[in-house]
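Handout, section 4.2: multi-component inputs.
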Amino acid sequence: MATTSRDDFSIAIRSAFLKKGVKQKFSLLALIIASVILLSLESINSKSLNFVRSAIKDVIYRTSFIASIPGNTISPMFTTIQSHFKIYEQYELIKLELQQLKNQQNQIAYLKTENDKLKKVIDDTDIYNYESITSKVLVDKESPFLKSVILNKGFNSGLKKGMPVLKGPYFVGRITEVNYLSSRVLLISDLNSKIPVLIEPMGYQAIMSGTGDDLALLDFLPKNHQLEVGNLVYTSGTGGIFFEGIPIGRVELIEEKFHVKFFSDLSQLYLINVITSEPMRGKQ
Amino acid sequence: MAFFKRNFISRFFSLIPLLILFFLAFSETDFNFEKLSFLSFNLIYILIFYWVLKNPDILGYGFIFLAGIVNDVVIGLPIGVSSVTYLILAGFAAYVRYLTVQPSLIYDWIVFVPSIAVTNSVYFYILRIFFDIKINYVALVLNTGVTILLYPVVGFLFSFVVKIIIMKKNV
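Output:
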């Protein structure tokens, strides 16, 4: 009896993995082996393999962009309808923000003049003097596990791995994969993102780690720090990877841990800037 | 003429699972909601399990493999991870198919639970151990739970497609 059930089990396993159906060209086992081979090829870094990978990715990204058109046409309609209902509320909020911004603008003008004078004294270069390329987000597949977007520009436009990506003036991620016509940006919200940051006005250095959410966690803060909610977080430029002083977000305290609330809404990326020039002061 | 029309309808409906599979793999549209992660589910898993169980010829293994590659490229995972997981899930479904004499949605649903648990564990371990990619474990578990809960609902909807394919073929 036991032998029969074992036989049934082995027959079912063999049939499932080795037998090809009437219209099947490959068995399951053959395809699983092919997938494992593909996976192991991922760790091999050769010129010809990279070229093939890059070509495949470019084709798939473009197809993905086309396949996403119907969905992308429909989804903004819901947002438009929703925003119509909130129009008065938003108007009042914008009026208030405008007043605050006007006040800040006056302060900034004063600080900028002062900053220019001080820079002349120490003979420093302008940290915002960088070249950038504007790029469009081709595909933004919302994934609960990984946070990244695909851009419509690749190494044919001069993009390289590690380049910082900005939405307006705010830092949103860095390039992690470059193909000929497209590239991938790892967003700062991704669990695998680690960015060296500077927290002002205290001048603390820390590492900002993505949490997979709208917030990032601040790691490696100095002992006995006096961080406050609302402190501003910028890129630190440590290691010469990024320019220093690119704004990222504000400090928030959640469950007794210091987090960064991003200035940019990372789910609403469309046109973004990739900084193509090398940081100068960070190389020190 | 009527025969050709019936044949065309049957063929069209047989293509629906394949079209959905590739549409989900290629496009931004899926059922992973960034801000409503407790409602996110993996329709591709349900699709593969259901159709391999019902009729593996409709959703060929080769297409499942290709859809996995496309999904990996679009999401940004190492190429082959999704293919392996999809094919393992298909393997479970094929195994159950060979053992089942009297298929029922409830029985399929019960078998789907360990299948998806093993599949997602493989997915998680490949990414974590072999590629050192961190993924949101809580989101993955939530996604698995919602996918399991929605299997009978989606399965019920797919059963209409099955009925149409069989009906048009037999008429």
